[in-house]
Specification:
Layout lengths: L6 H19 L1 H16 L7 H16 L21 H40 L4 H19 L8 H17 L8 H8 L6 H19 L4 H14 L8 H11 L19 H17 L5 H14 L6 H11 L1 H5 L9 H23 L3 H4 L5 H11 L5 E3 L4 H7 L18 H12 L13 E5 L4 H10 L2 E6 L3 E6 L1
Amino acid sequence: MRSMSTPEAAAAPPRAGTLATTLEDNGLLVVALSAFTIVLLVALRRGLGGDGWLALESGRWIVQHGLPSHDPLTVWSHGRRWTDQQWLAQLGLYGLWRLGGIKLAMLVHAGLVTGALAGAAVIARRNGATAHSVTWVAIPAVLAYYPVASVMRTQSFAFPLFTATLWLLLADARRPSNRVFATLPLLVFWANLHGSVLLGAELVSLAGALTIVRQRRISGRGVVLLLAPWACVLASPYAIHLPAYYEKVMIGGDFKQLVTEWAPTTLSLVTAPVFVLVLGGLWLLGKTGRVLPLFDQLAFIAIAVISFQAVRNIAWIALVALAVLPPLVDRLRGQVDEPRRLNRMLALILLGSVVVAVGWVAARPTSWFTNSFPASAARATSSAAGTKGRVFATTGYADWVLWSDPGLVGRVAFDARFELLSRAQLVRIARVEDSAGDWHRALRGFRVFVLGRHADATLERAIVRTLPVRVAFSSPQIVVLRRG
């Protein structure tokens, strides 16, 4: 005899079964992504650096003074036009700091970068890839993603927007719909968060060009997708100044020779996973790429090229590879029987470990996050500088100095906004930090020097040997020197 039940009772088991089935089908993938999240959380304080302090300092300045137009913060770029393209992300990070301190800002950063990575994996699964294939691609992908994505800065907000844009475009390549136009408001939002919006605009414009080619006529849909993204990029309070800003940052910036992250990507232990993804992806495209829509293939190639233009671009190819390549891996391997119970057990253990890691990080004191930037060093810098003394802080410390003591605004030599500096000033910085040439001339007029204990050890010895200075503060991380 058939048993009767209410709709509510009948609906309950499928929900529980769906969760269990999801963990059983995706156990290894959940383990891989959870392991990445745990490592990111445990090492979270290492992600706090100059770019993060710059975002917080800029956000505070905007709240107190409004959107900047000319630089008031540093000596060498004082009065120059400041196109603060990332103003909204800076406000966001500063707002998080106001709500929960540096701890909340760092945890939200971890959630943003982890969510973007998980979203790319979901895209691959929705496009028919097996969990095993997604996991295989995820291993080199997380290794390529981590070095750039682990750093807390305005770019953290861009990662989920990139994944969302990619999701809409890949879905449209398989089944065209008007949902693809949702990429345009995403680009408008993105245009005020981070300069990587140019990558999103490039992908949307590529989809528009392929639409025109596929339809063999100039259609309204194709034209909108082709041209509108570039208008969205300029949807900012700094609209008329953005072209010059992007030209300098993306093409003509002399600081690419000074800042490692802006240098071209070459083979090293850190970048080896990028080469694995790109070369392996190109081999897969040549072998079985015809099963993918043309957009997928061209998007992978385009972002692969961009990933070699600068080290800081390598995170984007990790997201694209994870979303695009797994279906191709499935074409080369046979069916694998999932150890379903083991998958579920491992997934639950790792997910529980993520929760524990979040709780552990949330329980850490603020000093745990700022270990490399001791408050006592900041106080010593302010005291040594007095009310008028100027400070020369090496790369990575200037923005922290400004954040720690707003009274030093206009008295610090330079900060992480290298696009505001001239080529001669960039050369001057390089000579000082390498103790080369007439480096000591650049330090004239500065009373206090803030140096990294290890990174600037050679410069510290040169200053002590050449200038009349005394140690105002010393720790395993930072040394502060004051002219005698």
